[in-house]
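User: Could you write out the 3D structure of this protein bound to iron/sulfur cluster? I've included everything you need below.
Assistant: Certainly. Input first, then the structure.
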Amino acid sequence: MSADTASPFSTLKLGPITLKNRFIRAGANEGMSLDGTPTQALVKHHRDMARGGVALTTVAYGAVAARGRTLPNQIWLRADILPDLKALTAAVHAEGGRISMQLTHGGSFVTSVRVRGATLSASSGINKAGLLCGNLWQRAMNEADMAAVTGEFVRAAELCREAGFDAVELHMGHGYLLNQFLSPLSNRRRDEYGGAAANRARFPVQVLRAVKQAVGQDLAVLAKINVADGVRNGATVEDAIVTGRLLQAAGADMLILSGGRNIESGWFMFGSNMNMQEMSKVLAGQRLTLAMLKLSQRGVPRISFRPMYFLDYSRRIRAALDMPLGYLGGASSLADAQLAMQEGFEAVVMARPLLHDPLLVSKFEQGLTSESGCTHCNGCVPYIYDPAGTRCIENPPNDPALNLKPARSTPG
Ligand SMILES: Cc1cc2nc3c(=O)[nH]c(=O)nc-3n(C[C@H](O)[C@H](O)[C@H](O)COP(=O)(O)O)c2cc1C
Ligand code: SF4
């Protein structure tokens, strides 16, 4: 490493907060909430992350509204769960870590919750993602819908501040509502919210600006965006650069660079194919869902995992933007983290390696290991549907009892 390359163990200032090192746990749906309420299992999960040395751990998939939930048990941010959110933040802070909440709205990607009327999206039409639960139609949001959803993001961010979170991350990737605007795969609008990349970014940027204005003095405001959708006619890296510049101007403290869409290009998101063997085990009782998932795998390219699989795309974004960027995608060794720093990224963001071993960062720091044992088999992904929550299939099972008790009842 050259003398002016940051060490991954050096501190990082992100807006109003400072991280103790450059390792961030990526938002990765834990499946550890019940009827929208965080459970004791979620507290344990993120306490373990903080204890294992990550500077900022991200609680995944917090829906900003009931109709923005993709899954029935998914966290739904409302005042009722304030004590549960406080239990989460207190547990992480007690370990010296910082904690972020990923804020999301599914839009039309509402796969398992019946929504009254058509689901919201950038454009109208048949809603493929909603077929299983009867959400057959989606409708293009109008300005009043946009104002209402912006308000929901703001209220959710304010709730996170009240609960003691250090950051919020707006989910603008992977095919959820804000991404449905960004991607030409789902945005066919002819008004100022459609067409050129800057127009497609208009609504997501409005949301970020409003959240920043509301909580930006106290919380870091991050956004997770796609470097590209990874399929023909999808958003490109050039689009991501336009989006990134606009988000920076709106006040984003950092962009987390991901890629791919749940329906069209899950393999691109993970840099490896879905693990259908584990999926069949976990969803054995849900034959229709499993059949749909198997169908969705038809025509998917077979790909081999490559370390740092988004580096070529992310490098281009790094060269075009002068704001903090978190490298994500197949980083799993100390050398990968150092490479991310050499390439000019401010942080390294990991999901699977930390599911495999929550102690990984402290082991890197103490010289106990330099490489994660994660094989990127994606066996953990189907376990977001398991009653005990997600886990690495190479580790012992989680205690399902912890996923039945609300976080607020966690013993002190
Ligand atoms: C079990 C699991 C659940 C995930 N759920 C989410 C999620 O809720 N939100 C999100 O933005 N990304 C989610 N992801 C994607 C990760 O954040 C990350 O983009 C991806 O795993 C690639 O990073 P990695 O190579 O460090 O694992 C999930 C990943 C895994 C393994
Ligand atoms: S199941 Fe374990 S080894 Fe496989 S990808 Fe997930 S964390 Fe890695």
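The first strand starts at residue 12 and ends at 14.
User: Perfect, thank you.
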